[in-house]
Amino acid sequence: MGTTSFPSLGLSDWLVGQVNAVGIKDPTPVQVNCIPPILEGRDCIGCSKTGSGKTAAFALPILHRLSEDPYGVFALVLTPTRELAYQIAEQFRVFGSHIGLKDVVVVGGIDMMKQGLSLAKKPHIVIATPGRLADHLANTDTVSLKRIKFLVLDEADRLLDPSFEEALEVIFDHLPKKRQTLLFSATLTDTIGRLREVATNEPFCWEAPREEATVEELDQKYVLMPAKVKDCYLIYLMEHLHNEEKKTLILFTPTCRSCQVYSILLRNLDYPCVALHSILSQSQRLASLNKFKSGHVRILVATDVASRGLDIPTVDVVVNVNIPASSKDYIHRVGRTARAGRGGLALSLVTQYDIDRLKSIEENIKTTLTEYDSKESEVLKLLNSVNVAKREVEIRLGDTDFGERRKINKRKRKLLEGYVKARKTKKKT
Ligand code: AMP
């Protein structure tokens, strides 16, 4: 990928050996540009798309420094989704096995007591989603982060969303002022100012060339349809893409509920699929992802929880069942296909209500989507069977306590808010 070698970046021989042992020969641009300043001790803001080797760009210099002075907790990595946390941990384990690296993944959906016990053992690296870590810090004394050398915010722009604000405030309260802060994301544009507030230690800023935002190998199309027959179109597309063309697909849906509805609908109509959304338990989420990654099923129905960072190299088609509100989300979603130089198709289902949104996305990505060829007469033949099947799913789901977990999470957030307010009052007095 590049002309620079790993040893010339300043990494220890053992780390170069580990990297080579897993078949990685040359550093990628984000690694060439970010590893040396991180080793110099500078804060870093790195902007590069997923799959570009971002994780190794922060994991390698952290492991280099850790091996010089090993103790726990040495580094904290925050990331917005549980799946990303596991993915990051895997890379740390691969590169760090030589030095007996101990890591703990702290995410929701896992027994808190067990997690607390693992944290109490002072792992070298903690990889966490903000909500659960804040929960531990606010309510238990199991771990101290006061001596960490590195704080990493992966998918930093997403972490700076208001939804993470309370949890981040609790976490930042428990961190030392003197530390190295590394921020990585695929899209940074409008949050760069806020990132500079977080990374204060002479931040080094590197952004991958702009044209990487949506790749050339990606074919971007739309299907225009009246909203009331959207489900029919979706099933028609599945018949072609999944059954006839044997493609591997991710379907993005707007909410956890719609994700669940579509996954049941597809299964009932004999399209084997798995679902990934935040109301599922963590073991269900991991099981879904594993079935999809291993090729056991070729359809993943997901919310935006799957739109960022996930390293799934073989997705042929991304279907936007809804048009995302921002072009940033669109870029993340379609970035799940056409990875590593392969071709890919992004197909957006557009109704009369989505036209303005689509236009604004087209302006932002500087690409005009072309129309996907579909036969309305064929689609309408499915109308009755799809409508009946959809109604059955809605009735079935109407009787379940879907959304209960969300209520629990809301209650937890309220508790954290209380913690933040109490801390603020304490600081003032
Ligand atoms: P990312 O999600 O950006 O961290 O990229 C992850 C994928 O890229 C993983 O499968 C890594 O093993 C792989 N990777 C990381 N660094 C390199 C490199 N220098 N050359 C080739 N692949 C790499």
Q: What's the short story on this structure?
A:
It is built from 17 helices and 14 strands.
Give a structural overview.
β10, α12 and β11 (299-302) form a beta-alpha-beta unit. The mean pLDDT is 88. The protein is globular and about 70 Å long. The strands form two sheets. The protein has a seven-stranded parallel β-sheet, sandwiched between helices. A seven-stranded parallel β-sheet has the order 10-11-9-12-13-8-14, sandwiched between helices. With 429 residues, the chain is of the alpha/beta class. It folds into two domains: 7-207, Rossmann fold (3-Layer(aba) Sandwich), CATH 3.40.50; 218-398, Rossmann fold (3-Layer(aba) Sandwich), CATH 3.40.50. α2 runs parallel beside α3, α3 packs across α4 (82-96) and α11 (256-268) packs across α16. It contains 17 helices and 14 strands. Helix content is 45%, strand content 14%. Residues 1, 24, 26-28, 31, 50-56, 309, 311 line the site of adenosine monophosphate.
Largest sheet data: 7 strands, parallel
Q: Based on the coordinates given, report the CATH architecture of the largest domain.
A: 3-Layer(aba) Sandwich
**Uncertain residue segments:** none
User: Care to count the β-strands?
Assistant: 14
> In the residues, how many domains can be counted?
2
Mean pLDDT across residues? 88
General shape? globular
Q: Do you know the CATH topology of the largest domain? A: Rossmann fold
Bound molecules: adenosine monophosphate
Give the strand order of the largest sheet, numbering strands 1, 2, ... along the chain.
3-4-2-5-6-1-7
* Residue fraction in strands: 5-15%
Distance between the termini: 56 Å
* Alpha-beta classification: alpha/beta
Query: What's the tally of helices?
Result: 17
Radius of gyration: 23 Å
Work out the helicity level.
40-55%
